[in-house]
Amino acid sequence: MLITTTSTVEGKPVKDYLGVINAQSIIGANIFKDIFAGLRDVFGGRSKTYEKVLEQAKEDALRELSEKAQAMGANGILGVDLDFETVGSGGSMLMVIATGTAVRL
């Protein structure tokens, strides 16, 4: 599955536009991750804990987007956009929304 943020793929014309698709991933950070990330913030530096959570949420959303596109008979997703939001009590959860256009190249 070709996944790209661009609206075209050089040398591969779009044969069929199959529709707009989206996928969401919501991941909560547990109390221990919060504590260790808080310590990192106090002492400075990057919070590897939250970076890993963010990366996992992004991968989950893109995997689900790919699965939806495959179910439609697509072999590509163009114009992919990723949005990141915090949700839940006190912003304790991270939501990633992936949107794109399923196509047949």
Low-confidence stretches: none
The CATH class name reads: Alpha Beta
Looking at CATH, the homologous superfamily is Hypothetical protein apc22750. Chain B
Strand order of the largest sheet: 1-3-4-2
- What is the helix content? 25-40%
Determine the number of helices (DSSP H or I, runs of at least 4 residues). Answer: 2
The Cα radius of gyration reads 17 Å
- Main beta sheet: 4 strands, mixed
CATH architecture: 2-Layer Sandwich
Element string (H = helix, E = strand): EEHHEE
Instruction: Name the beta content range.
Output: 35-45%
Mean pLDDT: 85
Number of domains: 1
Structural class by sheet pairing and helices: alpha+beta
**Overall 3D form:** elongated
Between the first and last Cα atoms, what is the distance in angstroms? 10 Å
How many strands?
A: 4
**CATH topology heading:** Translation Initiation Factor IF3
Brief sketch in words of this structure:
This protein has helices spanning 31-43, 48-71, and strands at 2-3, 16-28, 76-87, 93-104. By secondary structure, the chain is of the alpha+beta class.
In terms of topology, how is this protein built?
Blueprint: E1 2-3, E2 16-28, H1 31-43, H2 48-71, E3 76-87, E4 93-104
Parallel strand pairs: 1-3
Antiparallel strand pairs: 2-4, 3-4
Description:
- With 105 residues, the protein is of the alpha+beta class.
- The chain has a single domain (2-104), classed as 2-Layer Sandwich (Translation Initiation Factor IF3), CATH 3.30.110.
- The chain has two helices and four strands, in the order ββααββ.
- The protein has helices spanning 31-43, 48-71, and strands at residues 2-3, 16-28, 76-87, 93-104.
- The protein has a four-stranded mixed beta sheet, covered by helices on one side.
- The radius of gyration is 17 Å and the shape is elongated.
